[in-house]
Amino acid sequence: MTTARGTLFDALNDRILILNRAGKVVYFNAAARGDFDGTLSALLVHPDLRAAITRVAAQPGAPMQRLKLPRDKDTEVNISVTTAPNGTDVAVVVHAAAPDIADGAIEGRTVAEVMRQHLHAPLSAFVKELTAASALSTQGQAVLERLEKVMDLIALFGSDALTGDERLLPTPLVEAVCAECANDPTRSRVVLSGFDDTLPPVYGAGRWLKRALREILDNAMGASPRQGATVEIRAQQSGEFLTLRVLNHGVMSAASWSKSKFVPFSAAARTGSAATHVGIGLPLAQRIVELHGGSMKVRTDEAEGTTEVTVQLPTGAPRFSATQLDAAQVQRYAEDLARLMARRKSKRSETAEPVRGEA
Amino acid sequence: MRKLLVVEDQADIRSLIRATLEFEEFELHEAEDGATGLHKARALRPALMLLDVMMPGELDGIQVCERIKADKATAAIKVILLTARGQKTDLAAGKAAGCDAYLIKPFSPLQLIETIEQLLSDDSAVTNS
Question: pTM for the full model?
Fold first, then answer.
């Protein structure tokens, strides 16, 4: 066994054994070494494996023999028997079991990934069914809204959830959200200030940013206890940030905000009381804003009876790292390099010709 | 020698553009963000700008283009927008901003040279007529 091959075999999780033609073990890798007292010694005396080894030893270069033998009373193990790299010995590979969630082996996967994988699809299907239902009771509608928020929260776990690079202009973005909220005439009126064409764009996922603004606006409008109250949204550019302030002129209990803000699932049922209106929505909005490189703060003024949600989003596109170069762009340059060089050569010749003429 | 301003936040892309154009007859200038690019455009009055659309900071490429084209002093500068996105809305935004050409990344260096030559020859034809 060469050192390089030994190093390679030692790096594998599969157990590798090399047996000479007499059936004697002449090499085993690191994984096999740690298993001789366990499964491996029992497997090596299994008649099916002995028969496969004998067949390969009798005919070097014979097709690989594949077996599935019991590892214990509940599980099986896959084994391959083939001619060893030296062309005469026999190699036995006992394949490592694939990671299995049922075994509790979720190494390398975050809880969020597991949640996404196991919950998102069935929850989405269920929400679609609910949405398609012709008539839902008020309670049914409330459950549907909460399920949609839970789905979004699951989708937003992990830092890589948002990869959108849409160019989003603040004014149409906020106007679209306001239009969605304007359907209910009993709710607060929204007043915009500072929105004009000079506001810088933000880059991100339009769907998610709309969702965040909708949640903030819904909270502010829901907090206003009376018809005709106003919610003001102010926009301002502050250096490399766009600041959006959602100011609720209605009464909202500062105590309820401070206790429950940004704590997912803290809301009580929607009873119409302003003090119980903070739930999944604001944590969801905060998560979305943070995934866009921004920040979100809530400030309440009990004396004035106002609550202000401030969202800061970086303007312009996300910054690239100094070493990040688009591989596709490099590839494109590489493809055209020969033609580019030919062009340069041609240009040099053209430049040189008059000199030759003068000479 | 005509001035050409490259406004691009990725240093490596600037290097590739520089390598592409080093044998062409241009005086190359560079800026790594929109605000600096706009400032340099006003100060240098280049014949042409290569302008990345997606740049971090106060101004992205579309905004810089809008301001260049809205200012009589700089409106004659030819602007080529460079972007990784080729969606219809982006092309429309570039057109609305007044850009003269649009190259979608990954762009070909030869296509870049040809586009520059085309725009500047059009410019010369107008100037000479």
Answer: 0.62
